[in-house]
Design a protein that fits this description.
- The chain has 200 residues and is an alpha+beta fold.
- It has two domains: 70 residues; 125 residues, Sandwich (Jelly Rolls).
- 34% of the residues lie in helices and 38% in strands.
- The protein is built from one helix and nine strands.
- The strands form two sheets. Strands 1, 2, 4, 7 and 9 form a five-stranded antiparallel sheet that branches. A four-stranded antiparallel sheet has the order 3-8-5-6, with no helix packed on it.
- The radius of gyration is 41 Å and the shape is elongated.
Length: 200
């Protein structure tokens, strides 16, 4: 091997070594940058997650406040008297009236202002008025009529002050709903009453 060949081979070895060192340096630099990015990404995700939680919580609170502010003051359900729908199936041959009676067991209604319920009739051709009556432990009775019951559900709210015959609301024995022969056009039919409740 000539000295010239030895120098060429030696310079090639140096070049390879330089190349390997250069590649190793590039790899290490890239690897350290990737680690820095990996450390930055979890923190970014944590921040985004926290911001989204704050946004969702704030939005839901705002919607809740808005929905409550739109409710009328008397819309609060104070006491449900009949959790299931009531059905008055009347047939005025030979009966003259059909009554659905709710036993209130001497319930004190002094803190309540309204009786609310939904009502509809089965036969849209019929004309029906419904008698709504409270009875007290002191033998007081008072009624209010709901006229022209609709074929589709309708909400009614009767102010307790409309029941003029009751002076003491501290012991209420019963609430009754009555369909009377003289307050219907047809001799038979069905009246449905739902969501019977007292409102403050």
């Amino acid at each position: 091997m000539t000295s010239k060949q030895f120098c060429v081979i030696n310079s090639l070895k140096m070049d390879k070594k330089d190349i390997y060192e250069h590649l190793a340096k590039i790899y290490l630099d890239a690897s350290s940058k990737k680690k820095k990015k990996n450390k930055a990404f979890p923190q970014l995700f944590k921040n985004l997650f926290f911001i989204s939680l704050v946004f969702v919580f704030g939005l839901s609170s705002l919607l809740l406040v808005n929905s409550r502010s739109k409710e009328p003051a008397n819309a609060q359900v104070a006491l449900v008297l009949a959790p299931e729908a009531l059905k008055i199936n009347f047939n005025f041959d030979p009966a003259k009236k059909e009554i659905y009676n709710l036993n209130l067991n001497r319930l004190n209604l002094n803190k309540y202002k309204e009786l609310a319920f939904s009502i509809k009739k089965a036969n849209f051709r019929d004309t029906i008025s419904l008698r709504v009556e409270f009875t007290t432990a002191f033998k007081e009775k008072s009624e209010v009529y709901v006229k022209d019951i609709p074929h589709n559900w309708r909400e009614y709210a009767l102010n307790l002050s409309e029941f003029k015959g009751i002076s003491d609301w501290s012991e209420i024995l019963s609430l009754s709903f009555t369909v009377e022969e003289w307050n219907t056009k047809e001799n038979n039919g069905v009246v449905y009453i739902d969501n019977v409740r007292l409102l403050k």
